[in-house]
Specification:
480 residues, alpha+beta, 2 domains, 7-stranded antiparallel beta sheet, 5-stranded mixed beta sheet, 13 helices, 14 strands, Stress response protein
Length: 480
Amino acid sequence: MSEDTWLAARLIPTSGINGAEEQERRATSAVLAVMSAVREFGRALTQPFGAPAGPVQTFIEVPFKLGDKQLFPDGLIRVSRGQRQWTALVEVKTGSNELRTEQVEAYLEIAREQSFDALITISNEIPAVAGQHPTPVDKRKLRKVSLYHLPWTEILTQAVMQKEYRGVADPDQAWVLGELIRYLEHPRSGAMEFSDMGPAWVSVRDGVAAGTVRTGDTVVAEVAGRFDALMRYACLRLGRRLGAEVTPALSRRDLAEPSLRTQTLVSQLSTTGAMTGGIKIPGAVGAMQVTADLRAGRVICHVDVDAPRSGKPTTRVNWLVRQLKDAPETTRVEAFVMHSRGDGTAGLLRQVRADPATLISDPAKELRAFRVAMSAPAGSKRGTGRGAFIDSVLAAIDDFYEQVIQNLKPWMPAPPRLRTPEDIQPVEPVSPSLVSTAISSQDGATTNPPVVEQRKVDEPRSPADAVHVGAAPQAGADDT
């Protein structure tokens, strides 16, 4: 039999997983074990929660008493450094299973009684904003215990970034982390990617098309929240490929009050039939803006680029066009002028390449910025696969970054040049004995020498003339 059919032995096998309980137990044990074995990975997951930099100890299914009940949290993490000890309980869900409020609150109570620091939940639920928890709990239970949430996608992202980009000092530990990545990427692990827009998607989609969606509809808020979760998933997915910390582009107000962000999306969806989100990529020329227009059935990605501050308008347009050599001809380019509001002049890239003046409405006005946009069909299905909304949004984001954003660089002014003796030219012919061969900082400062009025030798000067040529004026009666 050919060796091609042999299966390689894996440290964390996916075979033998029977049911959700076994899937959950194996995923919990795999993640916690690798956290304690690979120091860099354990530190990457616990540092944001306030844990000290020290050895990580992990345990699974630790029994605790709560009243007359015995409960078994899925795991426990302990980090020690010197006299300080940080402990957190862990609750894990895999597949489509969601966290339950009563279970989370019971584990918060156990953590409070045991003087633990935190409760960490892990599931495939992705909150719209980082730091937000997907399960509502009684705020009074969070007075002494912190509550954190890790989506499986974020754990996989941290593992890939640590192994492929940040690095692991020990080669054996790097191999162990690679085995965890293989396991989490397998469909049977239960660490699913974002794959569903929710049960309200179909009714909202059809309502937008019919014009019957209203701001007060509860299903609209549910779809708006799922869209924000999709944008965060897109950030984690893109960051995993780039090895960078890609985050949603949100204002301080949105981060402080996520409910206001949801209300904005609900109002936008009910009035225009569209939802918008932003992606902030380190080193990019600007934030990528994503618009999902359900009424038109399109996904539009765009980025705003500051125009050069020097050169003619056509020179500035050509500066942008040269950087869009990999962009498709149907890419839309828009130009905005200084001190103006509203829409600018626009054209497709193939038109702008042939005639840069397409974007110039008035050569006397200075260009301020450009907007580069690409449009793609939006899927209508709630899940994943061909014709699905999720896949169409992710594909549009990937294509726009690859064909446009990663090729754009901000304009930089040319550095000043040192002057040479050849650059210094006398203003008018003078006697060779009066010419200085040394370069002065004043050389070339003015193009026209000051004009001194010539007068006859025997012509008397008036007091005003004396002031004109630089002589001191005569002291008057009021001078002291």
